Amino acid sequence: MQHPKQQDHTISFIGGLSFLASFVFTSLLSPSAEAFPELTRHGYVSCTACHVSPNGGGAMTPYGRGLSRELLSTWGGAREAEVGHGILPKEWSDALENSKLRLGGDVRWVQTHRENAAVRSGQFFTMQAQAEFAWDEGPWAIAAAIGKLEDPRGKKEFRLVSPKYYGLVRFAEAGALRAGRFAPAYGLHLADHTLSVRRALGLGPDVERDNLEFSWIGEQNQFFATITQSAESTASTDKERASIVRYERIINSNSRVGASFWQGSGGDHDAAAGFDRWMFGVHGIANLSKEWFLSAEIDRSERTGTSLVQSQYGYLRLNYEPVQGVWPLLQYQHERGDVSLNSSESNKYGIGVNFFPRPHFEFFGIWNRVSRGSDWSDEAYLLLHYYL
Amino acid sequence: MTKQTQTHQTFTSFALGLIAALAIIPVSSHGKNTASAATPPKEEAAKVAAPALGVESGKVEFLAIGKPSFLKVKGTGTAPKGSLTIEGDKASGEFTFDLSTLDTGIALRNEHMKDKYLEVGKHPTATIRFKDASAKEGSKQTIPAEMELHGVKKPVTLEATLKPEGDKKVATANFKFKLTDYQIEIPTHLGITIADEVSVTIESTLKK
Fold this sequence. Notes:
- The complex is a heterodimer.
- By secondary structure, chain A is mainly β.
- Chain A has helices at about 20-30, 60-70, 90-100, 195-200, and strands at about 5, 100-115, 120-135, 140-150, 160, 165-170, 175-180, 210-215, 220-230, 240-250, 255-270, 275-285, 290-305, 310-320, 325-335, 345-355, 360-370, 375-385.
- Chain A has a single domain, classed as Porin (Beta Barrel).
- By secondary structure, chain B is α+β, with helices and mostly antiparallel strands.
């Protein structure tokens, strides 16, 4: 167990990277492994080639584990993508691969930094340590994750959580029903949950939801319909029940576009503290060439309660892959928490890189220049991710 | 460690299909050119000249679907070699595609496709042949052809279009075939199985 280390200044090796503390902290409490929808550009238009979950992330299929070596990582030995990096005896690995057991898991360490005219701060902490197990019989599957989260904002301690558990029935080649606790399908299911289109919309992995999900993943069209409600532990003022639909269309075998709609109601209406909200968003992943690809999402939300608040969020990320496993990126994010208030707007201009040196390891770093009105600040973070 | 070789077979089939399509297109173009010749009578010119159109550039692509998950395996290869001969309004041709040039974007998948499924060492090429096909330009033509792949000869049906482009002809052809028809084992790897039917697209530029 590692406690966060408050630092007075940026760690030198990070150099110019600076990080956005409070906002990111919330979203960095990620309890679930996310998928890499960027692999759409290689023809992996559905998450289920690599993951048990129809919406991706978590326990990996043997095929997906193999891809981490063949498609995602810069280097790697023949057995390095196996559980245990090939250290286990071959017969053990083969038995595991041929079994119904699917494993997943993540450990994430994060260094953050934020700097503006008044504040210069940084923090290092273990964001997540989690393992996920699934049993996949083909027509049905069950999965559960258990792990510990570290809240860098206050408690300074790990807490044991089970952020994901579900049962899944595949009633047709393309169709499945799933019930349990997991991240509902809305927008792009990106690994980077610090994006405003995840965090600001309340879709960060720290928000636990119980769901009943119908999914239809066809050759050209993918459709998800989900009924979701906040977990019992959610504060009563934030509890919400919602219906969500997401549709995606596959284009040219290596790109996809989609739209999502969310209609929810929550809070305590009896105490005049209730709220209703809807969200609508469009998203896409486009394969521009062998080396270039981009992803984008734009969302608009409206929340009614004691007052009416309309918000809009968006991001655009352009990636370049000169060498397998090295993804330099340019990114723009827009956030306007209340469209009627100019002061609620921020724009972030980022440059960063994803680096997958070997199977099971990911480095991600990004530096953002942030404008809020006439104020500019720097935010950055560096993440080391080990996945099982 | 992912073995995506299975998909490669599909690629090979696609490539063969493309070759066939290329052959069809040149035939049509050639017919028109011959007809426009001023000096000899049309029939005589066709009998005497019948110049062949060769492949200047092009590519062969195939698409195979992996299940579950509807994984799209897309492969690309270089242009086929061969020629198209047009006599009157009929065309014939033979085009050969080098299966070793197929690339699916993943090295291990390429290796499995070529070594385990297509057995490129024993069957390095795929060939498409056709004769007495329509040489009409501009509209899509349905052309019966024969594809030799993996040591097996089977009929395929090409949907081909030939369009003039300056002094060249641009040909596009599509067709589908089944791996099992060519005694190619259905590729399967780590729970992903490639569908038997594979789609092939051939694009090529032909020139005298």
